Amino acid sequence: MEKRRTVHLVILLIICILVAGGSLGFGIVSYRAEKKANKKVAKFIDDQLERQAKEEEQLTDYQEDGYKVMDEYEIRSTTQISDAYISGDESGLSDDDKETLKIAKDVIAEVIKPDMSNFDKELAIYEWLCKNINHGQSTTISMPTATGNDFTPQGVLRSHRAVCVGYATTFRMFMQMFGMECHIVHNDYHSWDLVKLDDGEWYHVDVYSDAGSGQYANFNMTDAAFQTSHDWSKASLPAAVGTKYSIAVQRNKQIKDIYAIPKKIKKAIDKKKYPLFYSFEKKLTEDDMAAADILISQVQMALSTLGMDNLSLSAAWVDGGDLGYILAIYITDYSQMGEEQQTNVPAEISQKVTDMVNNAFGTSLEDYNSSNSMGGEESLGDKM
Questions:
Q1: Which residue of 153, 196, 219, 243 could cross-link 321, Cys pair, CB 3.0 to 4.6 Å?
Q2: Strand-strand pairing, 182-186 and 161-162
Q3: In this structure, what are the phi and psi dihedrals at residue 54, rounded to the nearest 5 degrees?
Q4: CA distances from 297 to 176, 220, 313, 329, 331 (A)
Q5: Per residue in 188-243, pLDDT tens?
Q6: What are the CA-CA distances from residue 113 to residues 120, 126, 249 (Å)?
Q7: pTM of the model
Q8: Are 312 and 271 contacting, i.e. CB atoms less than 8 angstroms apart?
Q9: DSSP class of 340
Q10: What is the DSSP string of 269-333?
Q11: Which distant-in-sequence residues (6+ apart) come within 8 Å of 381 by Cβ?
């Protein structure tokens, strides 16, 4: 709509100039030149309208609800649930939708406080989903749900497992419950969210890719940052150019230079507090960027030398707006991944089952809970 208004205003301005020019009396001498100019103006207007029509066609062709990612996982609307939450009237909901709304309300009561901004609410839901929802479908032995799938909010909130469409639709449902604009972005094989925050800007959020890691590597990102790992039709959705609510901007700490980082990484590892986000007192040079690359590689080698192969480092430069580039450092501890998402089985039961399997098959399997903490999302099928 904004583009359409802009084109119309340009056309109106051109017409006004021509009318004003005629009223000033250019005379018969300038008639031919004016006629020629009018043809150029007419062509310009036709070209602008044609371009606008093509852009609008792309927007119209984009399908969100009803689209099937991988020809299997359908993106389904949940506006009836969010509308019911906002209005307080659940009378028009089906029993399944009422159940979904009840579980969603419980989550909101757990993590949302009255004085939260939209960003705070978004962050709280993102963190809850990352912590509580596992990848995949159901469990090792499939459990029936009311919908029979884990790509709708009902299936996700009941089973606590989701494929990417499940994460995306559940996140969107919560955002819409808070009255926030949110779209699901997708290609043929993946989906994630695009949310509009308090600064009026749009941000990409891929909960699926961050679930279990707690790293924020795919939280509130710009188009420029996301296009290095994601592919989508950019003409079909609003541009994401905001930086204010990037987690790197929100949590960055300003330091003197690149060379102060190694000790800070060591301290963060000792205290198990990461990821890390650093802005710098002075504008970074190409040499600084090169030094950062070497630094991250050598810290990783140092960790391996110390026998800390369970720790993996990665880093990215994040656009910090007025802050310049911010260095985001992600530290993944593979020995801890999945611990908070394990099936809640008492240790004595897990050990009893392990002992029975060992006796039956003559094996020496480890206790399931301890071995599962190493794999996070690994299932029996993955190991075979």
A1: 243
A2: unpaired
A3: -65, -40
A4: 42, 26, 8, 12, 13
A5: 999 999 999 999 999 999 999 999 776 899 999 999 999 999 999 888 899 999 99
A6: 9, 15, 23
A7: 0.72
A8: no
A9: G
A10: HHHT---EEEEESSPPPHHHHHHHHHHHHHHHHHHHHTT-TTEEEEEEEEE-GGG-EEEEEEEEE
A11: 140
